[in-house]
Write a structure and sequence with these properties.
By secondary structure, this protein is of the alpha/beta class. Helices cover 48% and strands 14% of the residues. The chain has 13 helices and 11 strands. Strands 1, 2, 3, 4, 5, 6, 7, 8, 9, 10 and 11 form an 11-stranded mixed sheet that branches. Strand 5, helix 5 and strand 6 form a beta-alpha-beta unit. Helix 3 runs antiparallel to helix 4, helix 6 runs parallel beside helix 8 and helix 10 crosses helix 13. The longest helix has 27 residues. The chain binds pseudouridine-5'-monophosphate and manganese (II) ion. Manganese (II) ion binds next to loops. Keywords: Glycosidase, Hydrolase, Lyase, Manganese, Metal-binding. This is Pseudouridine-5'-phosphate glycosidase. InterPro entries: Indigdn_synthA-like, PsuG. It is an enzyme of class 4 (lyase). Its EC number is 4.2.1.70.
Length: 307
Amino acid sequence: MADSRLRLGDEVAQALAEGRAVVALESTILSHGLPAPSNLEVGRELERIVRERGAVPATIAVLDGAAVVGLDDAQLQRVCDPANSLVKLSRRDLGPALATGVAGATTVASTAAIGHAAGIGVFGTGGLGGVHRGARETWDVSADLAVLAETPMTVVCSGVKSILDIPATLELLETSSVPVLGYGTDRFPAFYLRDSGLDVPWRVDSAKDAAEVIATHREHVPGRAGVLLVNPIPVEHEMDRELHDRLLAGGLAKLEREDVHGKHVTPALLEYFHTASEGVSLTANTELVRSNVRVAAEVAVALAERA
Ligand code: PSU
Ligand code: MN
C-alpha cells in the first residue's frame, strides 16, 4: 500500500520503528458489531488493555481517503457514532473507499491486510468470519478466510459463531494451510460457547509458547499464511446453551423471513442476539473480546522479546 494512503499514528509508527509490540484492532466490531454508546467504551477499553500488557494498540479504519493505523480518540468517536454510518469494508472494498473518500470500518480481512502492510504481526478481535450455512448454494464464504490464507498475521479470536458452518470453516482453514492453535484448549471455540464440539489440531498453553510456534511458522514454513489463535470465552461469561440455541434458531429464522444476505448477515444477526437476549450476548461479546485482546498483547510482547 502506497505511503500516501497508509497513515500511521505517531505512537504506532514509533513503536514499530523500535521493534516494540503493537496489536492491531478492527473497527467493524465497533461500528457494526456493538451498539452505541457501549461501542465507544469498548473501543477505548480494548486500547487500555493492550497498553496495560505493555503493547501499543492500533485500531484501524478508513477515513478521508487513507487507511488509518492507530486512530486517535476523535477518530475513534467518529467510527463509533452511528450518525456517521460507516460502511463495512472488506478487503475488496478498500480501493473504492480509498479512492472516493468514503469512510469505513475494517473487518478482519481488511484489518489484517492493512495491519500487515503497516508492519504489524498480531491482531486481537472477537470472532472470525467463515463459511456460512447454506454456502453450497449461496457461496457465502467470508473473505476473512482467503485473506488469512495469504497474509502473515496472527489473529486471536474466539473461533467463529455457531451461525456459521463450523466444520466447513475448519476444513477451509486446513485447505488454506492456516495453523489453528487452541489457547489452553483442545476444542475449537464457538464464540459464545467454549466448545464447538470440534477439535483444534494444535494446542498452546502460554503466550510464550504461542510466540514460539508463530515465529517458527513465519520463519521456517514456506508461504504467507497467517495463524489463527483461538481463545475460548472466559468460563464465567459463557452463554447458557439453551439461551444460545434459542437465539440461534430465532436469528436464522429472522434472516430467512427478512431475506438478509451477504455482508448484512453478520451485523443483522448480532443485532438480533443483543436485542433478543436483553444484553446477555452483549456482555458475552464484550468479555470475550477483552480476553482475546489481552492474549494478543501478551503474544505480541513475547514475539517482540524473542526478536
Ligand atoms: N463476528 C463477530 N463480530 C463481528 C464480525 C464477526 O462476532 O463484528 C465482523 C468482523 O469484522 C468480521 C466480519 O471480519 O464480521 C465478517 O463479515 P463477513 O461474514 O460479511 O465477511
Ligand atoms: Mn459474506
